[in-house]
Amino acid sequence: MKKTIALLTGGTTGEWVVSVKSAATIAQHMDTDLYEVYKIMLNDKGWFYEPADSVKIEVDKNDFSILLQGRKIKFDGVFIAIHGSPGEDGKLQGYFDMLNIRYTTCDALTSSITMNKGYTKAIVNGIENLKIAKSVQIFKNGNYDIAKIKSDLKLPYFVKPNSGGSSIGMSKVKHADDLEAAVDKAFKEDNQVLIEEFVSGREFSIGVFKAKGEIIVLPTTEVIPANEFFDFEAKYTPGATKEITPGAMSEEEFARVHQIVKDIYMKLNCRGVVRIDYFLEHETSNFYFIEINTIPGQTATSFIPQQVAAMGLTLGQFYTDLITETLG
Predict the structure, then answer these.
(1) Which residues form the active site (predicted)?
(2) Is 277 annotated as a binding residue?
(3) Which CATH superfamily is domain 113-132+200-294 in?
(4) Domain 135-197 top-level CATH class
């Protein structure tokens, strides 16, 4: 008998546009022999199921169900495809936990912690062979000293909103005099800001997921932006970034990276598919952790679909593996 799956898309942040594209890819590739899929849109106006041939049907949030032609439909599981809030920060996960409905992502605690770059780095710090750029975390209206930050950290700096996505509000600061302006820009996006030393290295992004009880590492993608760093424009402008999947690593780097990312997955108690971004430092090949994304993009050009293809898996099989692991 087919399992009934809610594919949840949209969201309440600027990332909703990417979420809608991700959900379109997922819907296109899910195995309709195994699953009856209902795409649910969540936005500022409400939560709705929108059949092709009728008006929007509002979701009953008391039990996360819909009433379709007099039939009450409840779900065996939820495929969450919402980037940013409330899909990636633990809010929806907590809601589904209370209703005892299974979902494809990390749990509420892991989701909320990993939205905070500074807190995540504090937890993964100490994993063997993982290094972290020296950084300072500051709070809006907090008691921070810009002069002390300038003396403690070496130029250039990366300044980024602590919980933001898609590199919005991020700056690379080459001159100490420009730090205040970069901090102001980041504070427009978040009330916590991370200022960290720049690591000169090759940038990679790698998918990790769990299937049949085993942690599986996808082929990595090397990211070579035409811009100075992988900013919003580089991420979403076709041709602005060269992406090589699988990225070139030596045998030693390959083995070390695979062990580190599996350790990150376990240490953060991840579930479903996540994407880990990292540098391999130019001089040393040291692994520097950048961040983890617990609901990575699934658009046609996103890293995860590229990596799934490079591994020789179909997206249909990949999504079936994720849902099977979710439903148990």
Answers:
(1) 15, 166, 302
(2) yes
(3) ATP-grasp fold, B domain (3.30.470.20)
(4) alpha beta
Catalytic residue from among 135, 203, 302, 325: 302
15, 196, 203, 325: the active-site residue = 15
Residue 152 known to bind ligand: no
What residue ranges do the domains of the chain occupy?
3-104, 113-132+200-294, 135-197
pLDDT band at residue 51, thresholds of 50, 70 and 90?
confident
The answer to whether 15 is a known catalytic residue is yes
Helix (H), strand (E), coil (C) string for the chain: CCEEEEEEEECCCCCHHHHHHHHHHHHHHCCCCCEEEEEEEEECCEEEECCCCCCCEECECCCCEEEECCEEECCCEEEECCCCCCCCCCHHHHHHHHHCCEECCCCHHHHHHHCCHHHHHHHHCCCCCEECCCEEEEECCCCCCHHHHHHHCCCCEEEEECCCCCCCCCEEECCHHHHHHHHHHHHCCCCEEEEEECCCEEEEEEEEEEECCEEEECCCEEEEECCCCCCHHHHHCCCCEEEECCCCCCHHHHHHHHHHHHHHHHHCCCCCCEEEEEEEECCCCCEEEEEEECCCCCCCCCHHHHHHHHCCCCHHHHHHHHHHHHHC
The architecture (CATH level 2) of 3-104 comes to: 3-Layer(aba) Sandwich (3.40)
Predicted structure pTM score: 0.90
Active-site choice (111, 112, 135, 166): 166
Predicted confidence (pLDDT) at residue 55 exceeds the cutoff of 90: no
